[in-house]
Amino acid sequence: MNPEELFNENRGQQQPAAESPLVSLPRDLKMFKESIREVAVEIMVEGLSKYPIFVAHQHELKLGEVILDRNELNTEWSIHASTMEEFIEVGLIKRSRRENFVASYKNPNEFMCIFVVVPEGANFVFVPYQ
Fold it and tell me: Going edge to edge, which strands form the sheet with 78-83?
Protein backbone atom coordinates (compact mmCIF):
# COMPACT_ATOMS: atom_id res chain seq x y z
CA MET A 1 0.00 0.00 0.00
CA ASN A 2 1.29 3.44 -0.88
CA PRO A 3 0.84 6.48 1.40
CA GLU A 4 -1.69 8.11 -0.92
CA GLU A 5 -3.94 5.04 -0.57
CA LEU A 6 -4.32 5.70 3.17
CA PHE A 7 -6.93 8.38 2.58
CA ASN A 8 -10.21 6.52 2.39
CA GLU A 9 -12.36 7.73 -0.49
CA ASN A 10 -15.38 5.64 0.55
CA ARG A 11 -16.20 7.32 3.84
CA GLY A 12 -19.91 7.53 4.45
CA GLN A 13 -20.75 4.49 2.32
CA GLN A 14 -22.35 1.66 4.27
CA GLN A 15 -20.23 -1.45 4.63
CA PRO A 16 -21.28 -4.73 6.23
CA ALA A 17 -20.43 -4.84 9.94
CA ALA A 18 -17.39 -6.95 10.75
CA GLU A 19 -15.22 -7.27 13.81
CA SER A 20 -12.77 -4.42 13.89
CA PRO A 21 -9.12 -5.33 13.35
CA LEU A 22 -8.38 -2.84 16.14
CA VAL A 23 -9.49 -5.38 18.75
CA SER A 24 -6.07 -7.08 18.64
CA LEU A 25 -3.95 -3.91 18.51
CA PRO A 26 -3.72 -3.23 22.29
CA ARG A 27 -2.50 -6.79 22.90
CA ASP A 28 0.22 -6.54 20.25
CA LEU A 29 1.30 -3.06 21.40
CA LYS A 30 1.61 -4.32 24.97
CA MET A 31 3.87 -7.11 23.74
CA PHE A 32 5.90 -4.75 21.49
CA LYS A 33 6.15 -1.73 23.82
CA GLU A 34 9.73 -2.24 25.02
CA SER A 35 11.02 -2.80 21.48
CA ILE A 36 9.14 0.27 20.27
CA ARG A 37 10.53 2.37 23.12
CA GLU A 38 14.10 1.26 22.33
CA VAL A 39 13.70 2.26 18.68
CA ALA A 40 12.14 5.62 19.64
CA VAL A 41 15.08 6.39 21.93
CA GLU A 42 17.53 5.36 19.22
CA ILE A 43 15.83 7.63 16.66
CA MET A 44 16.05 10.57 19.05
CA VAL A 45 19.59 9.88 20.38
CA GLU A 46 20.97 9.49 16.85
CA GLY A 47 19.41 12.84 15.93
CA LEU A 48 17.20 11.40 13.20
CA SER A 49 14.10 13.08 14.63
CA LYS A 50 12.56 14.42 17.81
CA TYR A 51 9.27 12.96 16.60
CA PRO A 52 9.36 9.18 16.06
CA ILE A 53 6.20 7.67 14.60
CA PHE A 54 5.37 3.98 14.53
CA VAL A 55 3.07 2.64 11.84
CA ALA A 56 0.80 -0.27 12.81
CA HIS A 57 -0.75 -2.22 9.94
CA GLN A 58 -1.92 -5.66 8.85
CA HIS A 59 -0.99 -5.63 5.18
CA GLU A 60 1.86 -4.53 2.89
CA LEU A 61 2.88 -0.93 3.44
CA LYS A 62 5.69 1.18 1.99
CA LEU A 63 6.30 3.65 4.78
CA GLY A 64 9.15 3.69 7.27
CA GLU A 65 11.31 0.70 8.15
CA VAL A 66 9.96 -2.64 9.35
CA ILE A 67 10.94 -3.27 12.97
CA LEU A 68 8.38 -5.94 13.92
CA ASP A 69 6.94 -8.20 11.22
CA ARG A 70 3.65 -9.92 12.05
CA ASN A 71 4.47 -12.91 9.82
CA GLU A 72 7.79 -13.54 11.55
CA LEU A 73 6.40 -12.96 15.05
CA ASN A 74 3.05 -14.69 14.52
CA THR A 75 1.11 -11.61 15.66
CA GLU A 76 -1.77 -9.63 14.17
CA TRP A 77 0.10 -6.37 13.52
CA SER A 78 3.36 -5.30 11.89
CA ILE A 79 5.13 -2.17 13.11
CA HIS A 80 7.27 0.16 11.01
CA ALA A 81 9.45 2.95 12.42
CA SER A 82 9.22 6.36 10.80
CA THR A 83 9.50 10.03 11.67
CA MET A 84 7.46 13.19 11.38
CA GLU A 85 9.90 14.34 8.70
CA GLU A 86 9.16 11.29 6.52
CA PHE A 87 5.41 11.82 6.98
CA ILE A 88 5.84 15.41 5.78
CA GLU A 89 8.01 14.27 2.86
CA VAL A 90 5.40 11.77 1.61
CA GLY A 91 2.50 14.15 2.24
CA LEU A 92 0.75 12.39 5.12
CA ILE A 93 1.34 15.49 7.23
CA LYS A 94 0.98 18.72 5.28
CA ARG A 95 3.89 21.12 5.69
CA SER A 96 1.40 23.81 6.70
CA ARG A 97 0.17 21.55 9.55
CA ARG A 98 3.65 20.75 10.94
CA GLU A 99 3.32 23.08 13.93
CA ASN A 100 -0.12 21.67 14.79
CA PHE A 101 1.33 18.16 14.75
CA VAL A 102 4.28 19.20 16.95
CA ALA A 103 1.90 20.91 19.40
CA SER A 104 -0.23 17.77 19.74
CA TYR A 105 2.71 15.33 19.83
CA LYS A 106 3.07 13.79 23.30
CA ASN A 107 6.32 13.19 25.20
CA PRO A 108 8.03 10.33 23.29
CA ASN A 109 9.62 9.07 26.51
CA GLU A 110 6.16 8.39 27.94
CA PHE A 111 4.00 7.72 24.85
CA MET A 112 4.40 5.87 21.58
CA CYS A 113 2.99 7.75 18.61
CA ILE A 114 1.19 5.14 16.52
CA PHE A 115 -0.18 5.76 13.04
CA VAL A 116 -2.80 3.02 12.77
CA VAL A 117 -3.71 1.90 9.26
CA VAL A 118 -6.89 -0.13 8.71
CA PRO A 119 -8.99 -0.64 5.55
CA GLU A 120 -11.35 2.17 6.65
CA GLY A 121 -8.54 4.72 6.88
CA ALA A 122 -5.70 5.77 9.14
CA ASN A 123 -5.19 7.93 12.22
CA PHE A 124 -2.68 8.87 14.91
CA VAL A 125 -3.02 7.56 18.45
CA PHE A 126 -0.74 8.07 21.44
CA VAL A 127 -0.36 5.03 23.66
CA PRO A 128 1.38 5.24 27.04
CA TYR A 129 4.30 2.86 27.57
CA GLN A 130 3.11 2.12 31.13
Answer: 65-68, 78-83, 52-57, 111-118, 121-128
List the one residue out of 115, 112, 128 whose CA is nearest residue 39: 112
How many residues make up the chain in this entry? 130
Distance between CA atoms of residues 29 and 35, nearest Å: 10
Are 56 and 117 in contact, with CB atoms under 8 Å apart?
yes
Burial of 40 (0-12, 13-18, 19+ CB in 10 A): buried
Residue 7 has pLDDT above 70, yes or no: no
What single DSSP character describes residue 12? T
CA dist., res. 79 & res. 61, Å (int) = 10
**Phi–psi pair at 12, nearest 5 degrees:** 95, -20
| pLDDT score of 9 more than 60 | no
Return the domain boundaries, the chain: 27-128
